[in-house]
Recover the amino acids of this structure.
């Protein structure tokens, strides 16, 4: 694999992001702070749009998903149960010569301290042996700073969902299969933040935990578990879906989400984790990758991409861990299962009982429970099936907001070289965002600033659209300059109020020029139709 040292495209993107107010270095006036980034006016709008689209698609528009907004600091017991206290670490090494600290698996190239988008070779000094470095940020709760007051900034949003599973189940009137979605900040003290915002120390996640019935329960109720092809969308959810169908469903739903905001399938890559890569409790994990400008290329120039989102089938690990650590039951009661179980032939009951028992015992022993208590607990769990009880399994689509923003920016970035009559050429930039994510949906401009009738009409159009979408009013400079400014901001449409709007040609009274960003095409549209025309495209 070849990792390009110079990344001119990335540098151009970083510079445009700063110049146009998409992304700034955090605390820049004090020299910045490594791994932290701020979103400027355009970036903040872009981010808000992305999160709102995710929230709408994943929760509001579905019958089977409820939302949650939990705190960033939670009981430290949560991170013991999840395994983060014991194992959420990266191997870290120190260089005895330059005193730098690096991730052991990423030593050959590091981000340049002056230009984080550029990778530079690291010094070849002698290194210490790798040591585990826990990525959680630690703090103290309350006035006394000792071991009893240690708390952590959450390194992922998922755990709060598991910890609140029972409360959501009881208050939302949902029944398995159903999901809980959450968007929020996560913090990881990454050893070497790199690739601009791609690996930050403070970032946002959009996570769904979708709870499903274990395959043994599906088999008891439906007779068998549906088989699905490993690729392609399996269609509308069915009662006989087991974890494989649900997992495949969520991978494809997430790809559709990305396609719906302008990331064509060809810009994405997929990585199905191998059994060696999978966590012991996970059944499968597919990472959706985006082909970033900094993504590694092989000798033939093929690029796989870097992770945008991981979709994991996590079995019943998470709820089971919280049940064990909190002492509170995390299982559910399913009337349909209880009814179906009693009608099953004895051999079928025995077969399902044994498979459920084996899975539970396997989980318990792998989690450190001694053989004897593990078999006792697994027996109790498997006996629960007959009473309609089980611990739900989970499919987890977990996406990073900031990585998606970076992907959308890289995908939108394009340069247009214009040559004038004298042969002088100039490069302009167009951010070709999908209208659904574009920070500004429409630019509204009077043709001339010094004609009060044009200005008054333009302001009326701005005010007509403003309650519905983000509008930018601009009357400064030539109309060409104003269009160029909106192109750089990625505004998909511009509306110009000219003399025809005022009725110079009577048949064009109360119509405006509508300019399309990507091809410069101009249409004439009635003001009375403008709002609906735009809404159809930007929502
Ligand atoms: P990676 O292997 O790249 O470190 P991960 O597998 O640890 O990522 P997860 O724990 O699965 O990531 O987190 C889910 C999502 O959160 C990732 O797909 C990514 O989009 C986002 N994410 C994780 N770590 C970071 C980070 N340091 N900066 C920005 N986004 C992140």
């Amino acid at each position: 694999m070849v990792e390009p040292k110079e990344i001119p495209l990335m540098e151009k993107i970083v510079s445009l992001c700063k110049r146009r107010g998409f992304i700034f270095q955090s605390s820049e006036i004090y020299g910045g702070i490594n791994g932290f980034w701020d979103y400027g006016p355009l970036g903040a709008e872009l981010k808000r749009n992305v999160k709102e689209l995710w929230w709408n698609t994943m929760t509001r528009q579905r019958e089977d998903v409820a939302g949650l907004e939990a705190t960033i600091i939670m009981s430290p017991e949560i991170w013991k149960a999840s395994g983060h206290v014991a194992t959420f670490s990266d191997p870290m090494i120190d260089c005895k010569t330059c005193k730098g600290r690096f991730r052991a698996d990423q030593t050959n190239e590091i981000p340049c301290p002056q230009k984080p988008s550029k990778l530079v070779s690291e010094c070849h000094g002698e290194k210490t042996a790798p040591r585990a470095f826990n990525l959680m940020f630690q703090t103290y709760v309350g006035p006394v700073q000792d071991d009893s007051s240690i708390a952590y900034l959450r390194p992922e949003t998922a755990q709060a969902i598991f910890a609140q599973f029972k409360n959501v189940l009881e208050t939302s009137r949902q029944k398995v299969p159903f999901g809980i979605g959450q968007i929020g900040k996560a913090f990881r003290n990454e050893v070497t933040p790199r690739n601009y915002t791609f690996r930050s120390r403070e970032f946002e996640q959009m996570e769904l935990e979708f709870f499903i019935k274990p395959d043994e329960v599906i088999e008891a109720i439906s007779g068998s578990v549906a088989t699905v092809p490993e690729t392609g969308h399996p269609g509308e959810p069915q009662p006989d879906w087991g974890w494989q169908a649900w997992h495949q469903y969520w991978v494809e739903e997430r790809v559709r989400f990305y396609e719906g905001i302008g990331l064509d399938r060809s810009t994405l890559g997929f990585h199905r984790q191998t059994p060696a890569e999978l966590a012991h409790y996970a059944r499968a994990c597919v990472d959706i990758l985006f082909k970033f400008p900094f993504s590694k290329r092989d000798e033939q120039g093929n690029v796989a991409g870097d992770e945008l989102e991981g979709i994991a089938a996590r079995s019943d690990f998470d709820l089971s861990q919280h049940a064990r650590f909190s002492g509170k039951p995390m299982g559910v009661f399913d009337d349909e299962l209880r009814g179906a179980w009693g009608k099953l032939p004895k051999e079928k009951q025995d077969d399902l009982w044994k498979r459920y028992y084996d899975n539970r015992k396997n989980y318990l022993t792998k989690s450190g429970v001694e053989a004897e208590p593990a078999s006792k607990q697994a027996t109790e769990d498997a006996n629960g099936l007959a009473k309609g009880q089980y611990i739900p399994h989970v499919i987890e689509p977990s996406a990073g907001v900031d990585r998606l923003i970076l992907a959308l920016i890289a995908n939108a970035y394009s340069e247009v070289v214009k040559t004038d009559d004298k042969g002088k050429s100039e490069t302009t930039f167009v951010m070709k965002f999908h209208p659904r994510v574009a920070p500004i949906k429409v630019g509204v401009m009077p043709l001339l600033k010094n004609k009060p009738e044009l200005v008054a009409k333009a302001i009326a159009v701005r005010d007509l659209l403003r309650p519905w979408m983000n509008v930018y009013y601009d009357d400064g400079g030539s109309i060409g300059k104003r269009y160029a400014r909106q192109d750089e901001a990625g505004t998909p449409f511009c509306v110009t109020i000219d003399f025809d709007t005022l009725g110079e040609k009577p048949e064009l009274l109360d119509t405006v020029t509508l300019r399309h960003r990507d091809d410069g095409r101009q249409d004439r549209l009635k003001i009375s139709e403008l709002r609906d025309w735009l809404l159809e495209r930007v929502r």
About this structure: The pocket of adenosine-5'-triphosphate is lined by residues 156, 188, 190, 199-200, 203, 205, 307-310, 398-400, 402-403 (CB under 6 Å). The CA atoms of residues 11 and 415 lie 14 Å apart.
